[in-house]
Fold each of these.
Amino acid sequence: MSRYVFTRPAESDLLELWEFIAKDDVDAADRVVGEIRDAISRLADMPRMGRLREDLADESLRSWPVYSYLIFYRPDTSPLEVVRVVSGYRDLAELF
């Protein structure tokens, strides 16, 4: 059984992130996405590690940074549900 799952928006986010970086450097894109996946694996082991985001959602939602990207996930789900993976520069209130 998988320790985490992606919502469809999170899957799209990760692909778009990879494509954006890969335009300039495929190796860098692979490295960034790999580090995001490593962080998600750690979050699956310790889901309370991230920052509680009561400012963005009524439900239990947390975030964890990797470079300038934020992983948004639901810590109370099993497997861990990754909701979005977005740039921290985006209007987060608009996303949620």
Amino acid sequence: MEFLAGLPKYETYKPSGVEWIGEIPTEWNLEKAKWLFSRAERKPLQDDEIVTCFRDGQVTLRKNRRTEGFTTALKEHGYQRICKGDLVIHAMDAFAGAIGVSDSDGKSTPVYAACIPRKKGGVNSYFYAYYMRHLALSGFIVSLAKGIRERSTDFRFNDFSELLLPCPSYEEQTLIANFLDQKTAQIDEAITIKEKQIVLLKERKQIIIQRAVTQGLNPDAPMKDSGVDWIGHIPEHWEIKRVKHIFKMVMEASEKNNDHELLSVYTGIGVKPRKELEERGNKASTTDGYWFVKKGDIVVNKLLAWMGAIGISEYDGVTSPAYDILRPQIPTNGFFYHNLFRSSLCSAELKRHSRGIMDMRLRLYFDKFGVVEVPYPPVDEQNSIVRYLEEQTDKIDNAVAVQKSQIEKLKEYKATLINSAVTGKIKVA
């Protein structure tokens, strides 16, 4: 609550008599939701378009956000009209924050509840949208749903209607809603700026990596045409070699009942022990038929290599036959090729050499990967490039971590601000 230090409070408070509400300002009342809202039941109009209630609280025409990833009903049984200004509750997703005020007229599935104030000028739907999302994101709706229906998070209008809700005056509801509109917009803008900075930092990281692994560190070095389109010019003293002349594919069977780490390779972070990242699912009951991985091997996820699922292992372990294991057969710094193979330029080339019909079915087999031509600098230069990239990428990763930390603090501040305003812990008037 140090975020809110210095903000004014109400002069006096009183017990609400409801454990999960606690104290409320003395001049506030409590009302059951059914005395504040009624459920609208309207038939859709012929030209109505689909309205969707999203988990971030936006309720809008589906076309305003996206059209992919939704199930399209062949017959719209029970569809209802949604009007601009309705407080909409998504029964199945309310626990995750899918509650908000519609900005559009349209139609929706009957799993939504369209709630309208019983008294015009007496209830501000935007205030209660903020309040109900606070209940959702604090976990209250999940706990309530579990108390009503085991193994279900349904939150229907009947559940909503029986809730006791804080009830400030209409004028104060409006002041609070307007205050939160302004403040959350400012916070969201600050978050967007930081997210853009993260994108720029990641782009800079890619540029630094691609330049170093294809052009070296000396900007004054004489250059030559590599003869490879995706590489372009390289320093004169570098060579171009096929992957199969640098690495050999090894298929060293793991021992039965071994206690080696089970490894996987991930697009964003490279090779890691699976147990560190996967709490459930995808567990191997046996490692019979798995391949042994030595520290320093390059592990290739044949299905996702072109998306960056390729990298050097810093562990001894085992991995499934879905992966190829590449081991250097000439003097090589594996981290140089870890950076090269994961760069966006190389990823595009690996995609070109992958076989399959659709993007998600492409596989990179070694007979194709092996003929890909890549730079081969002298090993001492590979070592220098690796050290330089470690230093530079660490700086960028740290800068990204700072931005992410600040985003989390802004989100925490936003949640605390909303919670405090709609429960009367601070006074915004």
Amino acid sequence: MAQGSTGAERSPRLPRLLDFTRFGCAMHLWAVHAVSVSTHLGALAIGGVLVSERMSRVPWRKYRYALLPLGVYCALVIVSTTQSMDTSVSWDRTSKLASYTSVVITLILLRGELWVRKVADGLIIVGSLVALYALGQALIIGDLSRGLGDPALRLRATFSVHTTLAGILTLILCVTLAQLAAGRRAWRWWKWTAALLMVTALGLGLTRGAWLALAATLFALATLCGWKWLAAFPALALGIFLIAPGTVVERLTSDFDLQLPTYGDRLEMWRAGGQMIRDHPVWGVGTGMVRHLYPEYRTSGAVRENPEHLHSAYIQAAADNGLPTLAAILWFLAWSGWCAFRGFRRARVEGRSDIDLYLASVLGILAFAVGGLFEDNWNDSEVQRLLFFLIAIPGCLAAGEDRSTPPSTNRTAPH
């Protein structure tokens, strides 16, 4: 009897613990604007997973599309670190691999449409608040043209650099646009408002890589959900022009000026990175060593003497840890993108309510992949954390024990 009563006492605690742990995982993602808080919340979520019964029922087979290439990547980075030109520097930087548990706890805890949708809607609210904060900065700075050549004056909200703000807003905007395109009518007015705020902040942020990622997202949206979405291009251009005509037009026209020093400097960074890859093709120079070795590879045409990174996630990854590691990243993005697209296509055929979540995953992975051509977003912890959530969505939905709503007649599936 004693054992039976003990089991009866414990049983209601496990669901409460699970809900608490799920909420901690959600907060871990919503607090992306405060990376230290987000990291601690993620650690608490891991602790909750370990003491709950959730681990015993994990459908690992459904998650192999994300965990297999990511596991290979982590193994290659560790081997590369042992071959580094300065192992003390590389081991210190390799500790960032612990943050990759974010994708694991998301897959374990947020199974089912209900919780994935809660997190997605929460992210839209977070993106709106971050965009409002950035627009407030724009009012304080006033003459945004001062920020064209000075990264310290560029809009960055609560983040350390302007590129992180741009990457975060781009990925959350993908979630927002997916819901709007899939015709989810609940509270659509505030989601349109959120999209407008984020697009405006992106426009005034003057980060051209994010603009290119947004353009790719809109093109994909037009391809998947109807070509009427291409009308967003002239609408966005006109709106941003009316807000800040001189500054934004100058930034847009500079995209076609190959004589700009920033273009030349970026090409010199890529040349230096290419030389590092040629000298160390298999294991790279070691995690975190690119910055230390850049002066040795720096060409005479380079402007900056010691940049933080090579302004390309793919060149940076290959230079840091070798070509096999770059292949693992591409495998991770490609396989995850294909699974998301396959889920979207199946949800559209079946008229399911989770179609927008699959679409958000497709758009987010595409935007990240395009943005990585010109920024080292793979090593940006805040941006990468949101990417992991978007990549986890297909697995979370496929393994979900609950679906929040049946196929709705109050929704128009994209076609």
Amino acid sequence: MLLEPKECIDLSIENLPRGAEVFYDLRHQALFDLLVEMRERNELIDPISVRQYLLDRNQLEAIGGMPYIAGLMNCVPSAANAQYYLDIVREKYMLRSLIHACTRTISSVYEHQGEVDTILSDAERLILSIGSGFQSDADPDIKSLVQMAITEFESAHGNQGKIRGLETGFGKFDRVTGGLRAGQMIVIAARPSVGKTSLAMNIAEHVAVDRNQPVGVFSLEMTGAELIYRMACSRARIDSERARDGELQERDFSTLATATQQIAKAPLFICEKSGLSIMQLSARARRMHKRHKLKLLVIDYLQLMQGKGSRYEQITEISMGVKTLAKELGIPVIILSQLSREVEKEDREPRLSDLRESGAIEQDADMVLFLHPHKSKDGTMLDPQPVKGILPKHRGGRVGFFPLEFFRSITRFESAWTAPEEPK
């Protein structure tokens, strides 16, 4: 940097995004900050100007005076190997950071402060963050961007009429959205008892059982046994209440046996621990994904997760964490959410502003799907229940609505041929 200021300082800024902290020697940290500051001000950089800057800041003697600076300039034959020297500095910094992360984890383990899941998540975060600041962020050239666009055109043409994302089992929804895409955060929102969990588990069942693709489910409200019980009844098309009351017929046991066998063979993985923070859930999801190579993750539901600060701050943190998790794992993540009571009070279709407790959900989500039930004239729930699936947000795609029917007794959604009448 002292030999070839313009080229080498710019190269150093680009390759060392963490700045002066990558240097072990405090004298080198001070020199690095000084040279970067002089470069930003477009000032002349040579031994004399550097000496004057250090004198003005009363740092010259602390650094070692001019003999030390002159000695630095004689340490390398030329500035031609600057990139090689940068790699050495970066490598040593990463090794020191790894030592720090391991030492901190060992200390946490011995002190045993907090839950084990929290310690594991903190250790994962520390280690993953070491290299995150040094990932290549060079801007792609225009030719490579054009080639990517051409590849996308060719792929779309070759798969004309086919669903390119992960199919949900609901035809019109898949045709409009193209299926669920990697890295997407999909929010399914409704008021209580409308069928959010049922729809999410219908999608999970289609992907895991019918398509044999690994699916992870975080059930913060229901136990895993309850979910599988409902899924078995849904798949066998048996009234779950009748099954619970022991009113099954002989023919029902045959269909239930077939359904349970199919579910048992499916790559479906359920975590039923309640009260998780976004940090704890992310740590468990990363391990689940590493072990099973998930294609879809379902979280039921957002408002049951824990966080710090006000409820608004908690929901904001959770929403951002889920979106980050989807991008990190490279899979679609479905998260369920409650809607505000205003929808019922005003007897209207839900809007994005009705997403409960935070605007961050609306902002972070790539896709939002509302479930709006059609009630009878006396206000009672029907079975099957006509439900309007409303897609008010779809980042980079079309929006619209999807007529559905919710068979409440078997907790199953199916596509409807016609839309329900609009409620008054």
